[in-house]
Amino acid sequence: MYVCSCFAVTEQQVEQHAENGARTPRQIASVCKAGTDCGSCVRRIQALLGRGAAPHRETAGRGRPLPAGPAMAPAPRPDLGEAA
Ligand code: FES
């Protein structure tokens, strides 16, 4: 089954590249171009490379860390008062 239809790359080929040492979608792209055209296959390639694995370099560190628990509640705004 094709993973990347733009370059006719199959799941089997991605798995073979992973066995040969590719660990990220970028490394897969460097050996077979998969993911370098429309990009719609990148998530599927990531899934094939390792479900539940540590975040890849490309995605690690994006966004801010989520605040824990009560810190998510909106801060009181003294300028609004209690009037309705
Ligand atoms: S389907 Fe892989 S780059 Fe388009």
TrEMBL record:
Q: Which organism is it from?
A: Streptomyces thermogriseus
Ranges of Low complexity composition bias in the record: 62-74
Q: Which family does it belong to?
A: Belongs to the Bfd family.
The protein here is known as Bacterioferritin-associated ferredoxin
* A Pfam family the protein falls into: Fer2_BFD
State whether keyword Metal-binding applies. yes
- InterPro entries noted in UniProt: BFD-associated_ferredoxin, BFD-like_2Fe2S-bd_dom, BFD-like_2Fe2S-bd_dom_sf
Q: Does the keyword Iron-sulfur apply?
A: yes
